[in-house]
Fold this protein.
Amino acid sequence: MKSTKTMGAKTGMSLLVAFSMLFAGGCATSMKSAKRTAVVSQTVYNAVKAQVVDQIAEIIEKDDRGLAGPEDRRRLRMLDGLRKLLDKYSEAHNAYVGALRIWDKIGEKPAQLLTQEHKVLELWFEVSQMASQLGIMSHANGVTRT
Amino acid sequence: MKEHNKKLVESLQGIRKDPAETSGAVKALQALKSAFTLATAAGAPWAPAGLGVIRVLSAAAAALKNGSKVDEIDLEKLMTTSATEDLKKKGITEDRIRKALDGDA
């Protein structure tokens, strides 16, 4: 029998995967849906990034005062990993928006658009998993992080 | 199937069925949000992560509502800045993070 923790993690993961369908649902069939996908992508990215930046800054400040312990460093290591991943996500998102600009300019869907969209989606899977492990999203709602 | 899972699946199906309509997407996001809220109240094991998703979904739904005139969205405004850039603005460099990780700051 699977432990509750394992099952919970699996369910959580599948939900985050399901959430990623939001991007897939916006598959660039028209400029309007492509723009909407970009809006959702930008919004969720900014929401997660803000928390990562704030939490890293919080730990660094604690470290400056000599108060950071092993648990803080462990968390900082994970946050730093997510920071690097978010940077890749930002790059992929901007490339996607760049492809939209080309589409908007020449009036024809550029070949790289689908590739960029898939890249954003793939990275979102990874961001979701790491953010979930960090309890990043729940922390912002005042829920004690684990 | 538990009620919250059922709602979730319905919501996601709604989004996929109606990808071109902003109003449809907003409704689906709101339904998805209520599914997460329900799951949280029901004590689902993934509830803490779900709570966070609610926040992100709320932000996404708000963005879509505000962007109801999708055609008028300036693509330039959809660009993002990296987390590293944001940290630099706060005076935190990669080197500073590395020092903290090493514990020798």
User: Anything to note?
Assistant: The mean pLDDT of chain A is 77. Chain A is about 80% helix and 0% strand. The CA atoms of residues 50 and 140 of chain A lie 10 Å apart. The helical segments of chain A are 4-25, 31-64, 70-106, 112-134, 136-139.
